[in-house]
Amino acid sequence: MSFQPFAFPSRRSYVVARHGLVATSQPLAAQAGLAVLQAGGNAVDAAVATVATLCVVEPCSTGIGGDAFALIWSAAEGRLYGLNASGPAPAALTADLVRGQGHVTFPARGGLAVTVPGSVRGWQLALERFGTRGLDTLLARPLDYARNGFPVSATIARAWQGSAELLRRLPDSSRVWLPGSRPPRATELFRNPEFAATLQTLAEQGYDTFYAGPIAAQIAAAVRADGGVMTEEDLAAYQAEWVEPITIAYRDGYAFHEIPPNGQGLAALLALNIVKGFDLAGLEYGSADYYHLLIEGMKLGFIDAQAYVGDPRQVDVPVAGLLSERYARQRRALIDREAARWPEPGRPPRHGDTVYLTVADEAGNMVSWIQSLYMGFGSGVTAGATGIQLQNRGANFSLEPGHPNEVAPGKRPYHTIIPGFITRDGRPWASFGVMGGFMQPQGHLQVGVNLIDFGMDPQAALDAPRFNWLRGREVALEAAVGEPVRAELARWGHALLPRETAVHYGGGQVILRDPDSGVLAGGSEPRNDGAAVGF
Fold first, then answer.
1. Which CATH superfamily hosts domain 260-354+418-534?
2. Is the pTM of this model over 0.70?
3. Where are the alpha helices (DSSP H) in 131-188?
4. pLDDT at 133
5. Comparing C-alpha atoms, which of 535, 367, 370 is closest to residue 437?
6. Count of C-beta atoms within a 10 Å radius of residue 3
7. How far apart are the first and last CA of the chain?
8. CA distances (Å), 368 to each of 259, 397, 512, in order?
9. Element spanning 345, H or E
10. Alpha carbon of 213 to those of 231, 235, 251, 337, 433: distances in Å?
11. If I label 64, which of 8, 51, 317, 383 is the partner at 20 to 30 A Cα–Cα?
12. What is the separation of C-alpha 288 from the centre of its chain, rounded to a whole number of angstroms?
């Protein structure tokens, strides 16, 4: 494993390990996963222990009241599995019902925005197929943190503060998340005894206790009390599913893999398929040409994803046509090398606040896992006395009649959270992800190009300054991008936000595996509290 010298001063070095490595957005959670690996568990065991700990120590971003997706490389089978643990709209939720309440866009918060939480069924599917440890073992560390407390880290404290008004809206949310009537400050201990009791129930009685019985009853009641229509039957009917990853060949034997719709991984693959037609490595890294090509490619990816992505169980999503080489050439031809554009969706040929973590073990298994409540603290609804905060994934539904993503009973919404994976010559090479709403495909594009086209090590690939395309010609650039580059992009028609504008540029992790030695190299995002740890 070798990396190209890179002029950009990376903020810290990457982590190397032989036996196992965990990288995620919070150090306590990374260490919980590492402890499972050190005790003989595999990458899937460690992934569930890590994400369960994140549900306790990073409650603004994730919880068991949210959804999950994963890409899992099975070393024993030599293949990549996709896991979709995103939940649908309740059976009584219709577009006419929402429009009838006066909404022209789907409400972002409150009971209507709550879709069935899928993450616990995702844990179940992953562990029953690949795990070697039980929930009682894997939930021990998060249960301890919930019961006895954990010290709140700096980035999470800031995010918690930003959600204070949302949490004051409902008594259960205020009681659980605002002890002493305020968010906890950095370094203060936070305890969640109600969630500890919920975790204890899961550990002792299993996954079904989340989807039926007292916990499910409290979830449904809390949603209905805040204007939603969820029932206990909606929860009881839910199952996660295995899906076939969608893939594009990139260059030099590399291939990118994403979860298929209803996720937005399609946007990342569309953009990568377009930009691979340019000699990116021949450009000066960080130049105006470099940013321009990636921004324009990303726009094209988003435009098509937002036009076509829906729940493939209810609508036809032309994935094969969108990812075809012929279509990529057509869309690539729309890019003007010296002008920012805002094109329309294409017509493809048709054929019949989030957490991310990655884990690799000594046997060759790798897990790319992402789980989220969507916006900070999700819907703002906490389920009775369970300590569970509920997601607001319904916010991404469309109310446009006939749109593939128009809300309908049992339909899963357009989903922002996406795990990423890269193979090289058919072998596992990189497990990676970048959290942050609609920044996620943009992060996959930028980090992926950094790794492959510019040969960066995993930490440098994460540290490098990013863009965040927002809408139309509007784009934000991190402060490290110099004025000459900004001036050139502005001259080409990009509407750049002022440098001081507060914009989120995502948070990610990467693990690379040396195909010859098996040595692991990991990096973790400097834009949050992340850590990569190994042994």
1. Gamma-glutamyltranspeptidase, small (S) subunit (3.60.20.40)
2. yes
3. 135-138, 140-148, 154-162, 164-168, 171-177
4. 97
5. 370
6. 17
7. 18
8. 11, 25, 12
9. none
10. 12, 10, 51, 59, 35
11. 317
12. 28
Contact 397, 413 (CB under 8 A): yes
Report strand pairing: 79-85 vs 241-243. Answer: antiparallel
Count the neighbouring beta carbons within 10 Å of the beta carbon of residue 5: 7
**CA–CA separation, 205 and 215 (whole Å):** 12
Q: Give the pLDDT of residue 352.
A: 37
Rounded-to-integer distance, Cα 419 and Cα 51, Å: 14
- Residue 325: phi and psi, rounded to 5, are -65, -35
Rg for the chain (alpha carbons), in Å?
Answer: 22
Place of tokens 């939603």: 228
Backbone φ and ψ of 164, nearest 5° = -60, -45
**339 C-beta neighbours (distance < 10 Å), count:** 13
Rounded-to-10 torsion of CA 282, 341, 507, 380: -170
Q: Which residues contact 267 (CB under 8 A, 6 or more apart)?
A: 298, 301, 302, 304, 305, 306, 309, 441
Q: Residue 413, class by beta-carbon neighbours within 10 Å (0-12 exposed, 13-18 middle, 19+ buried)?
A: buried
Show the low-confidence residues of the chain (pLDDT under 50). 351-352
Domain with CATH 3.60.20.40 in the chain: 260-354+418-534
pLDDT tens per residue across span 380-397 = 999 999 999 999 999 999
Query: Among candidates 357, 378, 377, which has minimal Cα distance to 368?
Result: 357
Tokens 């058919």, residue? 426
Inter-residue contact 446 to 294 (CB < 8 Å)? yes
| Catalytic residue list contains 50 | no
Mind listing the pLDDT tens digit for each residue in 172-195?
Answer: 999 999 999 999 999 999 999 999
The whole-angstrom separation of Cα 287 and Cα 271 is 19
Yes or no: say if 67 and 49 are a contact pair by the CB < 8 Å rule: no
Of 50, 53, 155, 354, catalytic: 354
pLDDT tens digits for 83-97?
999 999 999 999 999
CA–CA dist 173, 65 (Å, integer): 13
Residue 440, C-beta contacts closer than 8 angstroms, at least 6 positions apart: 264, 268, 354, 416, 417, 418, 433, 434, 506
Which amino acid, one-letter code, is at 393?
R
Instruction: Check if the beta carbon of residue 386 is closer than 8 Å to that of residue 64.
Output: no
